[in-house]
Amino acid sequence: MTVSLCVIAYNEESLIRGLLDDIANQDYPHDLTEIIFVDNGSTDTTPVLLSSFGRINSDFLRVHICTQEKSNQAHGWNTALCNAYGDVIIRIDAHARIPSDYVSKCVKEIESGEDIVGGGRPCISQQNSDWDNTLLAAEECMFGSSIMGYRREQKEKTYLKSLFHAAYRRSVFSRVGGFNETLGRTEDNEIHYRMRTVGYKFACCPGITSNQYIRGSLKGMMKQKYSNGFWIGLTLFVCPKCLSILHFAPFALVLGLLIGTIAAMKGSAVLLSALLVLYLLFDIAIGISALNHGGYNKKKPFLFLIFPLLHISYGIGTLFGIVCGIPWKKTHSQRQAKETIKKVKYAIRENTIE
Q1: Which helix (H) or strand (E) holds 350?
Q2: How far is 221 from 214, CA to CA, in rounded Å?
Q3: Which partner from 39, 204, 276, 290 sits 20 to 30 angstroms from 307, CA to CA?
Q4: Is residue 67 classed as helix, strand or coil in its secondary structure?
Q5: Binning pLDDT at 50, 70 and 90, where does residue 330 land?
Q6: Domains, in order of start, for the chain
Q7: What is the tens place of the pLDDT at every residue in 26-46?
Q8: Within a 10 A sphere around the Cβ of 230, how many other Cβ atoms?
Q9: What pLDDT, in 10s, does the model give residues 250-267?
Q10: How many CB atoms lie within 10 A of CB 174?
Q11: Distance from the Cα of residue 319 to its chain's centroid
Q12: Helix 73-82 to helix 334-350 angle, to the nearest 10 degrees?
């Protein structure tokens, strides 16, 4: 089977070198593998690094670099899809790492009959400092980030609602089309919902593992969580069925704090006190269990503060997303988005390059 390995990059010079090495070292036949890079308007040396990879690694079936003005991830992935010719299409983030057998294991699972496959995607830190390991512990903890099964390695094949760094049969995209380009961080939620509705299953397989770098600072992590929450709020006006109630847990916390504070200002602090006590108990219990994740260090006690900062950032983002949702929907045509989705579908079917 031929494989299209797709990577979207924007100013990734500090991290993408490792991924480029990983791609070059894949044990799946290079003459059956094409690499599709989409440079999303980078202003650093990322384009140079991509071009250099193409010159050095001429043994691949094809190394194709698409250059476009800065746009969102959904547009970048659609560009990659329209330029992909492989029987299997694999999506890998630029700030990720994959083992040398990643492609071959994905292809093996698809040859066994699966349509969409992937594996656990544990996070890794950029540096091995106490602070980076503390941020990693927060990101890896289910209380600090997500309970999604694909975030952790699986001991047996499990079917989930979504996957990260997934491999897809080409026919999957020729049936459901491309990504909704009006969406930012939630483009995966929406397209995976469409895939599920037509019967596709997401096989999370043991032995298939990739890694994702966390943000290198608390400020960066909070900004990421705010943006994630903001797009959850906006997506509520586009595809509410692709979201789960757990996506709104941080929003419920922020809303409860706002209502409780207003009630306390009017003389009744029961709600605010109860909410704070309940959250504090969770924070302490989960924080204690996370202290030894990756080994204890003197910065780990900051987890008790990091957790609420991440939750509140996410919840405030969702609040603003909901507030901005109605005017945003009026200025972002879903009709045009559907036309783009169909355009990608036809491009995939006809193997055309846009």
Answers
A1: helix 334-350
A2: 8
A3: 204
A4: strand
A5: confident
A6: 3-215+334-350 (3.90.550.10), 220-331 (no CATH)
A7: 999 999 999 999 999 999 999
A8: 24
A9: 999 999 999 999 999 998
A10: 17
A11: 21
A12: 30
* Residues paired with residue 158 on neighbouring β-strands, in sequence order: 204
Residues in the chain: 354
- Calpha distance 24→19 (Å, rounded): 9
Of 272, 300, 297, the closest CA to residue 286 belongs to 300
- CA–CA dist 316, 233 (Å, integer): 10
Residue 141: the pLDDT is 80
Distance from C-alpha of 159 to C-alpha of 37, rounded to nearest angstrom: 29
Sheet with 88-93: list strands edge to edge.
62-67, 33-39, 3-9, 88-93, 167-169, 116-120, 202-209, 158-160
Name the residue type at position 185. Answer: R
Task: Give the residue carrying structure tokens 């957790």.
Answer: 307
Estimate to the nearest angstrom the gap between the alpha carbon of 270 and the chain centroid: 39
Model pTM?
A: 0.91
User: Which distant-in-sequence residues (6+ apart) come within 8 Å of 172 by Cβ?
Assistant: 115, 116, 195, 200
Are the C-beta atoms of residues 141 and 290 closer than 8 Å to each other? yes
Q: Which of 184, 190, 302, 317 has the alpha carbon at shortest distance from 250?
A: 317
Distances (CA, A) of 85 to 66, 73, 146: 14, 20, 34
Instruction: Please determine, for residue 354, whether its predicted confidence score (pLDDT) is greater than 60.
Output: no
Helices (H) and strands (E) in the chain, counts: 12, 11
Q: What are phi and psi of 346, to 5 degrees?
A: -70, -35
Per-residue pLDDT tens digits for 107-126: 999 999 999 999 988 899 98
d(CA 89, CA 107): 10
Bridge partners for 64 per DSSP: 36
Token pair in block for residue 319 = 């609040």
Give backbone dihedrals phi and psi of 18, rounded to 5 degrees, phi first.
-65, -40
